[in-house]
Amino acid sequence: MLAPPGDHDWGKIMSRILWVVLAAGLALCEFTHAADKPFSGSFKANGADAKLEHLIAVKDTLFDDRPATMLIFSEKSASSDAKAKDDALFGKLGDALIVRVVRDGEKWDTMGGNLVHASLKHSGVSASGIFKLSDAKLANGELSGHLTTKPGEDIFGEPISIDLTFHVKQP
Fold it and tell me: CA 3 to CA 1: how far, in whole Å?
């Protein structure tokens, strides 16, 4: 049974309600932030996770008369960076993964890339033939797909592992 209005400490009740609303709002913001991230998964080198937070797609030069796109996953934002590839390659964007993808009709494939990782002795190394792109498609102006390396892959004897599912606005 409810007590008469004078028996409640309305200040405490309102304070608790405010805390519940604030906690719910923060949880919702965190959920929305995670949902907005353009990729999920990991890029590991020597067992250490890269600190990737951002992804942009940049129009690249044609490859064998086929449209090419450069995917730049990075620790720091490159969205307004005219030299995103160079800055990522030289570590100005922190850990980064730069992968060139080409389109041939409806099929997409990788044409190599660069791995920039604080745990690699040869950070910035160029690699080809190690990336696998599956489930790639272009729909509603977005390129999406699943980028991986085979189990046990390495660069100069340093183990690497890539397993990233992404979606990004096509340039």
Answer: 6
